[in-house]
## 1
Amino acid sequence: MQYENVTCPHCGILCDDLSVEVSESSVTPLNIKHAHCLRAFEQASIKDADLPSPQINGQQTSLDEAINKAVDILKTSSQPLISGLIADVQACREAIALSEKVAGVIDHANGPYMRANIAVLQRMGKVKTTLAEARNRSDNIIIFGSQIIERFPRLMERVLTPNKSLGADNTINKKITIIDSQAQPVNQQFDQANINYLRLDAPNLESVIATLELIIHSPAESEQDCNIDKSLLDLYQQIIASQYTTMIWYTGLFDNVAAEQTVQIITQSIKKLMEQVRCVGLPLGGSKGEITATQVATWQTGVPLPIAFMGGTPVHNPVLYDGVAMLENSEADALVWLSTYSSDDAPPKTDIPTIVIGHPGLQIADTTAVYIPVGIPGIDVRGLACRVDSVATLPLQKIRNNALPAANDVLNKMIEML
Amino acid sequence: MAIKLTGGEVYDPAHQIDGKQKDLYIIDGNITHSLPDNEKITHTHDLNGCIVMAGAIDLHTHIGGGKVNIARTMMLEDEHAHPHLGNHICRSGNGHAVPSSFTTGYRYAEMGYTACFEPAVLPVNARQAHMEMADTPMIDKGGYVLLGNDDFLLGMLQSGADQSAINDYVAWILNASQCIGIKVVNAGGIHAFKFNQRRLDVDETSPAGITPRDIINKLSRAVHELGVPHPLHVHASNLGIPGNFKSTLATMAAAEGLPIHLTHIQFHSYGTEGDYNFSSAACEIAEAINSTPNVTADVGQIMFGQTITTSGDTMMQYFGHEHAHPKKWTVMDIECEAGCGVVPFKYRDKSFVNALQWAIGLEIFLQVNDPWRVFLTTDHPNGAPFTSYPHLIKLLMNRSFRNDAFNIIHQDAQKMSNLASMDREYSLYEIAIMTRAAPAKILGLTDHGHLGEGATANITVYRKQDDVERMFAKPALVFKNGTLVVKDGEVIETVKGVTHVVKPEYDKSVEKSLSKYFADYQTISLPNFKISNDEMIECIGSEVKVHPCTQG
């Protein structure tokens, strides 16, 4: 059977134009060709007979027994960490409720990539746009880091190079500038006439972004500065001459320690430009559902991820409650790992008892305390996911029947028993 | 199985009951006035010394959607300064200016509110708005969906589309977004801001080639002709600009006698007189409302203190960002539909402008004669958090309290306001009108906002006391659909509430041009844009209650 308008939740763009053929257990997108996009559907094509059973320490068991065991672990844990959160809205809702119930800490697997954008929003706000707005309004695109195009395979097709636009022709034939430092390898695919691929003599991307900010804040002085690359001075003039410039970044490509500062510099640049022209940001991310998770967490608790509930109220602190660091520093004594989208996102290696509620294709070590395979959102389970721009929420269809429970139902049962 | 409420002083303006002692019964979630022979009373509440009203309804409060989440994220200091512990029935949360969703529901219920309406649902963000509201327990919800800056409608108007085609699109969007009304924010202005235009007056031609007046005119007619009970809900042009009362009057006139609701009208009632070139035009606005029966308004009262403003009006939020406190601000262009701007504000009684804004809001309340046409709002959180309503009610009901407050605001603002000379004190009956009967009537909620036979048993009981602020802050009892949910101002049982919507009829062929529009320009497909009833229940988490439209 063929399903139309299927949403793909495997990057933050949430393309919802997929035609997917479902034949017995296999799910095959018919109208996309990017390997990254196809991979998750291949992983999902598991025959009913090969679907794993719930497991306790590698031994098959019933769903009820697995839930009982998970509840026992959480009852005796003094500092549980609920992480992964690679899941739809419904499962995230329940994961937050579980965290509150067990007075735990909750964070997303991609937490570190979210922090910079959130911190800068908290400190100074932002100027942003959405996918359709960039597609139709923008005549000038600046992309910080060529790898963005590989991370978001259909960004070009869906947003940056539209066949039609609500705006003038210059919004169809956008000026696209991709900026890298020469320290980055050459990306051959951008050797195209319609893309200005600037590989600048700079130690890293961050220093290029800082130089651009310098020009934006002091254009006259910068013109006189022979250390500033002329192509960046030209880019500034192009921004001033354009109707609607969109700056695109992905914090995963920045040096993680400096990411917050880098995002702040971009935001300062945009806000300065706004005094004169229209300029907006379009930060990308969401490849593991982190936009969904933090949106739900924010409306339910008032604060973004990561959140600790041990004091009885939700407290956000990106340093103290960073999930990755907590595991590294042995600050948690039980881990709930929620990972439903792909079989790539196995739980991190840890010595503490781990409860995995996840994709049926996950490779689970026999030492894993509890594994409960669940339906894949958008394939086995109907759900909702938030897009990278935090504006559109897309429905995830149920296009296949199998016996796997929904993650939110499993989590809900655990909450009821705690 | 009946619950008896006996001995209470009932205020039910929908039935002209003004403080009469009257017994009520609750059977199966509804109100009856007499006990059927076969019914047994399971519980009697002795309400001697108490006031009984229907559950309150807030017709304009920003409680769901992306802008609220941006505000929550930006105001971490507010969230952490106001933590809310959970208990065996309530979830924990945070926040005063923009509380978390569960907290919002509990606080509203604890003040005796049983329904709240989110006034700025962006079509593409409707799912999220509904999800947030579904996670706001205790109260019924509903939304007004934003039009008037969307490229599709502007394109229709620009090409001279028939009113019937516009009506079909308006009806379609109400169905697709599961909303109960249509909202316009700075008609055409949000769109113009995307073209770097920083101001747009009512009769100025926008980059879309049309005027705000055209937009208001066509949309108010569409809403009227479709029989949508709630009039077009309008955030007028030039919010916050001295002299903007003229554009507010022009916006009223744009409806050409058809019903129109002007929201947070306090922010649109400014003149340019005096040394500060900023003055009250409350008198002109109130006179216009008094003399124009098709116009209703909510006030959007400001209160002194820290809050955060969230609005679809990117143009005017950007204009106001220089006054941000703390110094941070967000504007966002959204999906060829709309936008949002989020700017924290601290209203200070020693600031001339803020003090006069405060006085202007009260002047409007006191000068609009008909309490059925003026509504009690602070445009939560823009003028103040909704939890300030009991204080606002006291300002309206108690002249000496009001004048004491007036006497300590900025002295130059005092000189520019005639508030102190206003004798009017709102009665309990009038408060019941503006917070219950009138919002239910203007929203088409026939079984809400009153205590008549068969009404939904949303009932709030206050213990009578001299200090009405304390009285309205902490009801003795609140019933939601017949369930006792609040006792002595605290939640004792949690319930979910429903989503109120309208689903006007339309010519299905409208989807033909919309399909092409979505395929050519949008980044979401048309089938996925629409929210079905079963998605509301199964995924979003709220049951839908459809209210009839009466065409013609």
## 2
Amino acid sequence: MSIFVDETTKVVIQGISPTSQGLFHGLRNKAYGTKVVGGTNPKRGGETIEGIAVYASVAEAVKETGATASFISVPPRGAADAIIEAAEAGIALIVCITEGIPAQDEALAYNRLVQEFPGTRLLGPNCPGIISPGKCNIGITSGDIALAGGPVGIVSRSGTLTYQALHELSQQGIGQTTCVGIGGDPVPGTNFIDCLAAFEADPETKAVMMIGEIGGSEEERAAEFIATSMSKPVAAYVAGVTAPPGRKMGHAGAIISGSQGTAQAKMDALNAAGVAVAQNPTECGEKMVAIVKGLG
Amino acid sequence: MDLYEYQGKQYFARFGIPISPGGVADTVDEAVSQADAAGYPVVVKAQVKVGGRGKAGGVKLAADADEVRLHAGNILGLDIKGHVVKRLWVEHASDITKEYYASFTLDRPSKVHLGMLSAEGGVEIEEVAVTNPDAIAMLQIDPIVGLTEEAARAWVDRAELDPEAREQAATLLVRLYHCYVEGDCDLAEINPLILTPAGKVHALDAKVTLDENASYRHPEWEEFADDSDVDPREKMAKEKGLNYIGLSGTVGIIANGAGLAMSTLDVVTQAGGEAANFLDIGGGANADVMAAALEVINADPAVRSILVNIFGGITRVDEVANGIIEAISRVKLRSPVVMRLDGTNATEGRALLADHLSDRLIAEPTMLDAARHAVALAQA
């Protein structure tokens, strides 16, 4: 099994046009075997772009195609509205790769989703998307670096390190059930714990690889969840051990986070939760491979 | 983008938050005329984007023009934690009955806004947070609802501000919240927020961090642009639209994505080297961006080798390869380049580069191999 997506997931690409990023990656997703059932563009309803039927709105696309997921790569100023449009149309999974959405817009859109559209899951913004190898690929991940068949679930906060994680496992012949890039923005729609819980519940996922990075306290919270609620083994890497300290102003961050936020604090928390913590992505892959082989 | 205190105060003023009368000065003479206009006594304050100004001698009280001359002369040019003071803020000195603390920021774990208010403001607020956390009244604010006058009143009561300050403080907090939301701040902080013997509440300091992702809807932010303090390497990178942070090592680094760039720094350190910079060329980087990145790194005299670590997703490796080819034809690179290229269109990218490989342009199959090779070349 996979989490959040599978071979029945029907995807609509929001804001499609002949020159859009959405078209480039949407066509790649389609070529991978993903059921890309249409695109939306208020000015191009009724057109067909490179074999993809365009609808004027997400609501229309859902009505005509039964789309269950949407892919958003529109520029930052329209992205929050695009998220809400998808939710209003009843989309169950929204994948938003847009980078650079103002934090105030993200906070507002996230809270609207939680309160008004509890049935909708947002992945991102500023994430690479989600791939369940052999079944469905929504986003910008290159499908050929993933390997079908499981047994590892991957969750990552960093885009390019998501690819690195897939690559490390695939090269060793270890497949993935689902790889989720949650994105590194201040208000991610889906967080580590959502993914860890889903992997814990997924019978085909036997182990989880987690990639974090400095800042915030999501990794510390994930460590707490792993310690209390996970039976499956986890290997992790946190990027930024040697990162230059930011030029911080004000006291609010320090008051909220205390010593949290550094790579070391995150690694210590994960270690204490029984996670196999690595110093770099390659070592993380090696630790995951050893864990999987140990499962027999 | 962090604002200087005077910019933060000017930003606050737009949202109706009371501040002390004052003005900026770049010279001793300007400081005196600002002091004359503000009314004595005045406070002469160094404008630097770093904490601990007072303890470093960057904030002085002056009773008259002669004292302004003395202090302004001492503070201008003062080095505060590596920041040289070039500008002063001179404002009328306030009598202080009580110092409070107030701020708004995003509460990342709960994904709502977080207000913090304390009757024990001042320089030791971080210590208060540790030793007496109950003295800070936290308020989670749903972005959909916002901060109502009613909620603000209950909040100042809970924080136990002095009774005569509460009505004014509640009004001020609502305005600060508007500044934080409509002004697209990541942080809007007042420490101290003061109560005067005359019973007035106003902001004596301003810490504002703007969310640069929102700059498209704030043309007025252009006046805040400031590169006076910036590393010349960072200035050049910024002009080329690159996300660059200068460091002190010898291995120049170019990677796509902040996570991979940080991870590249990590592996260079683990391989025994030291990075000369952090450079994330971002998602969707094309040949021009790659060429610009190489030019910026090439301009750093400390760099002995260049490590290019690309895992294509939205970035296409063939575009990156074209950028490298263009850069080596356009600029004479002083240092050898070690590349690791994977991901979207990697096969096409590697094919493009095949004819250009030499002992100055080296391809390695993995990130670790590339880091080790680049470190070895930097130390050769």
## 3
Amino acid sequence: MKRVNAVVVGAGAAGGIVAKQLATAGLSVALIERGKWYTANDCRKDDLRNQRVTVLGNAFGPDDEGNPRVAVDARGVPSIVLPSEGQYQNDAACVGGGTLSYGAQAWRYMPQDFRMRSTYGAPQGSSLEDWPISYDDLEPFYDQAEYEIGISGDYSGTPFHGPRKRDLPMPPLVPNREFGILESAAKRLGLHPFHLPMARNSVPYNGRGPCMRCRWCCGFACEVDAKNGSQNTVIPVALKTGNCDLRTECMVKEILLDDRGRAHGVSYFDADRHLQQQLSDIVVVSGCATESARLLLNSKSRLFPAGLGNRYDQVGRHLQGHHYTGASGYFDFDTYDDVGPGASIAIIDYNHGTPGLCGGGMLANEFIRLPIHMVNGLPPGTPKWGLGHKQAMRDWHKRTIVVFGPTQQIPTASARVTVDPSVKDKWGLPVVRFEGNVHPHTFDIGQVQAKRAEAWLKEAGAIHTSISAGRPDTVSAGQHQAGTCRMGNDPQGSVVNKVCQLHDVDNVFVIDSSVHVTNGGFNPALTIMAVAFYASGELVRNWKGTGYRS
Amino acid sequence: MQTRNKAALTRRQFVAAGVLGGAALAVGCKAGNQGNWDFFTDAQALDLTALCDQIIPADGFPSASQAGVITYIDRQLFRHYRRHRDAYRDGLEQADALSRKSFAKALADATPLEHLAIVSAVEKQNPTFFDLVRRHTMEGYYGSPRHGGNRDGVSWRMLGLAEPPVRGRAQYDLRKGAAS
């Protein structure tokens, strides 16, 4: 197989951008993805099999067959979990990764989110740290992501966002009914509601049409291709250069090292499960926080017996996602208008600045509800079954608003990804094993956030409310998984440096949510994209034509 | 044909064969069941109907079974829910035994009021099985019609949702856009 300049592992939010940036700069790229390439034609509006409701499996991977993981519970007991189960912490496995089927909220983190330790100090037992780069460093790349991927929304209603040089490229969608109900209530409370940013066309953009406002949105591929992910933006551009070869259904086994401890490519199983080698000048790992850590840990060698880049036992640690909390409000008038995507209005007043709390989080109305979501979302005291339950479904399905949001998660070193010593996947590779749980201060923040959501709903006229703010005793990762290959200046306390290059091996990069030091009080997709534009920009700048020399 | 002998296999053999034999046996069983169902015997289907129709009873709108919930569960026991086959076999057997003990008649022959009492008892005595049936009943009733439940989108209509859904509502103003 012909040697390439760069192997990029994973064609998701970050990998697609890296491939495009390198290919357009003239590097030859092999973009290797374990999943398939689905398109708008593969959109199945199946309420029971998508990436949000997975009772009949994941629509966009992985399959339940042959892709197990292991979750260790609070008592230290490991159990096997399947991809369609919550404890699997699934994102997706396909071209586009999570961005094919995500809700597509496209947030910038706030300046404080990059210096959490300086702002708040680290709570006891936590590994709260500052990023080695700042909001200002990323701002141009947030902008690039907003324009190249295509974001709609309007920040003008809030003063709390970080500085930005220009408006979003698309106006917000026409507000749904919940927007109107919640907007006036927020204003009465002295808050600053606005049209949340989304990677979704509100007007024709980038050669594709606008959102048609259907009910099958978050968790689904978009039938009219109005949702913007890497699969319909940067990856087609990368392929058009002629420099990028996308290989789907190919599972990377390990990163290969030469005698001097530099990477010289990867070995992978192709779609027919034949082992192949792809030699390269550099390797970029973009498999998302769990799978990127796993690949490094599975890349053992004489020089790195505990896994590549893992000399100081940092790979896989600081695993974090988002602890979601909020409230449901039940109204005596119709709040539901069957207009997707549903989520439309947000406040970021509470992300920072609450005395006693290390951060906070964004609050927004939830994505449009499918009837199956409502089955367990009825007011407290509703019968769980029988005529009472059926009647309550009729009473409340159109009269419920859910407001919730991602709580800024306080990282710990003990929440981690390792590889299981015995369980293997269908390729015979050791699988991801989760250990640890969530730092308790995260729950303190979540509790306060849930009450704030409830207050907002009450002001909006809810006649009943219920709070959702659990204290689960497991890791939190899921679709917002991050942190496992921390970016930092200290090689003993992080895995990559501030340009996403392994401290230990100068031609291996990790570019995805793994490098997030903290994960903000926001959906992370746009930050993953901005980091990918930033890091691949640095990579191209330092590219000397025949290899990477830092 | 081996598949015609399904009833003759002990449960243990059947389970072992299911684990090892996978899809081939699954297809075989399907062809071999001479009743109206892929997985259930007709008697089991009647027992399950009794339970599901208490979880979602008929009122002005169809009950669980009338909306196709039994079909939904039956099909999934050959697809995504193969792992729940034993739970259904055992759980239905226990529910029937409970009926015989409490009312001296088979579950299928009991009255709706007696069914209600049995389902309440199952919820207390065998919560794992009850939760499974409740979950699957709700999925079948409120999920997508393509899986055999929610026949003709009846639950969605009940909730006042347009079915088939309204298509192509692009609510945008081209004059506002910085379209490219």
